[in-house]
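Recall that a protein's primary structure is simply its ordered list of amino acids. Everything else, from secondary elements to tertiary packing, is in principle encoded there. The following example makes that idea concrete.
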Amino acid sequence: MRRAVALVGLVGIIGAGMSLALLPATGTVAAPKAERTYLIPAGDGYGVADCISSKSECGQIVADAWCESQGHHAATAYGVAAREDITGSTPRPANMAQTELPLTITCGG
């Protein structure tokens, strides 16, 4: 009796799995986000400032990873922020040097 119940349960599980596997896709795809530029503190503690500020090969890898983690495609631009990019809307830490500018990463849509 137990084997029969186990067999019926197993067939039910396999049948449910097959029906889910064979269902057609709904065709809905999330719309990509618009292009956006992020300002990141140079001393963020992760050590990405060296790669991004030097425009080296590792900078592209780090910038792409940042964009993907934010839900975007690959980075289109990255580097040290220009003074006019900083609005002063976010407070600057007291221990940040005056010449230490944040980093920018522009992510594609």
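The longest strand covers residues 75-80. Residues 36-107 form one domain.
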